[in-house]
Amino acid sequence: MAVPIGKRLVAKSYLLISVLFITLKSIGCDNIASGASTSDPEAPHRRFEYKYSFKGPHLSLTDGSIPFWIHSGNAIPSADQVRITPSLRSQKGSVWSKNMVLFESWEAVVTFRVSGRGRMGADGLGIWFTSQQGLDGPVYGAADKWNGIGIFFDSFDNDGKKNNPAIVVVGNNGKLVYDHQNDGTTQALGTCLRDFRNKPYPIRAKITYYKKSLTVMINNGFTPDKDDYEFCTKMDNIVIPKEGFFGISAATGGLADDHDVLSFLLFRLTEPGQQKPPAEAEIPKEEKDKYQEEFENFQQDLDKKKEEFQKEHPDVLGEPSESTYESVNDREIRQVFEGQNRIHLEIKQLHRQLAMILDEQRRYVSVITDEVAKKGINADPQMSSVIATQQEVLKNLNDLRLSFQESLKQVGSVQHQGNAAGLGTYETVQHFNEIKEHLHSVKRDVDHLVQRSPPNPAEKMLKCPDFPPIPPCLSTLHFVVFVVIQSVLFFCYIMYKSQQEAAAKKFF
Ligand SMILES: [Ca+2]
Ligand SMILES: [Ca+2]
């Protein structure tokens, strides 16, 4: 099967990162260990073994495998943990170190969570050191008749003695069949009662095999303090295989828990005074060279790929993004929009002013009408003509206002369309034409008003400014001019009216 080069490269880089990360970690752990040994001369020398360990945040590779470990069954490795079993019924899973452990004394620190929604869970989790990898089987997901030692975190109370969850240590020489019905109590070398399910912090189990003694210490997950261990059990004169594999397995039954392992850290223990394993052995020279070579190859591949990509996509690199500069089209559209906005605002303002004038006009008309009503129907014919003219003015103004309203709508819709689909379409041009027509009709109305306003010869005495010649093309300036004319006209009317009133007073 051909694996894509990209994937392979990524996998390689992950492996390198993992190895580097674990190695760096080991330096840190080693320092801690050295610190401990200086305070207690009897304490063993402790050295981290990255080939038998895993932990986040780069626990698994992109292909789902764990460096130096194999997983089987329902186990699901992810970046920061291995879910040995999900909380589904009858699941089994396990992870096992690929390499055989060849040193005699060790300390394993396992961080895990057992969590489920029920008050009771099942079945439990096993930590193993056995001469063979027990990839599959009935004992917490691992093989029965194992040769070595199993530390079981038994969630389910099979014998009904209300003594679960419990931690049970069972040794086997490869012939014993695990006593599930009694929760292994008949075979237990050591045991302690601890509830390890659903704790706020992960559970930590520190299992030490040193000078033929096996000690199990538990951090109960109630505190974030990682070194807060409690004694669980200790077995002296225990003989376990000299060489073997580490494993973690879990199983669910009718009830189910998530069994998640966050890390497995292994330390090699050496008695003080004994010759420490050579520091060089941590990463043998040939292995170092191999990784170095792999890294260089990876770097070369990466550079090559980069070059190829640049060749294939010359437009992607080396050119500033197009958004930096404005194209001619974009600029035109922007300018049109800005112009549109200005027109829109001007028309709006005109509309408002027109409404005000209309109100004023209405007020005057009502005042005059009242006046006429008071004077009787046979009033001055001049007065009737004034009223008629006023009403005409009112009507024209109203028309003018409606026209403006229509224009406003048109401009608004054009802007909306422009925003949605860009400018320059046929519809837009049409809208512009319509607006133009409306504006022409407005102009006509204004002309009409100007012509009709002087109702009698008295008006002629007043000098109103000349109407400016209207250029063929319309602009917002013309609107302003119209409004000015309208205002002047209005002023003229007021003057005229006051004169009329003065004249009427003379009659009576
Ligand atoms: Ca059980
Ligand atoms: Ca039990």
TrEMBL record:
What GO biological process terms are annotated to this protein in UniProt? endoplasmic reticulum to Golgi vesicle-mediated transport
Q: Which residues form the L-type lectin-like domain?
A: 46-269
What kind of membrane protein is this, topologically? Single-pass type I membrane protein
Q: Which GO terms describe its cellular component?
A: COPII-coated ER to Golgi transport vesicle; endoplasmic reticulum membrane; endoplasmic reticulum-Golgi intermediate compartment membrane; Golgi membrane
Query: Per the database entry, which stretches of residues form a coiled coil?
Result: none
Q: Where in the cell is it found?
A: Endoplasmic reticulum-Golgi intermediate compartment membrane
Q: What PROSITE patterns does this protein map onto?
A: L_LECTIN_LIKE (PS51328)
Q: Where is this region: Disordered?
A: 309-328
A GO MF annotation of the entry reads:
D-mannose binding
Q: Where is the signal peptide?
A: 1-29
Q: Which UniProt keywords apply?
A: Disulfide bond, Lectin, Membrane, Signal, Transmembrane, Transmembrane helix
Q: Which CDD domains match?
A: lectin_ERGIC-53_ERGL
Cross-referenced InterPro entries: ConA-like_dom_sf (IPR013320), Intracellular_Lectin-GPT (IPR051136), Lectin_leg (IPR005052)
Which parts pass through the membrane? 477-496
Protein name as catalogued: Lectin, mannose-binding, 1
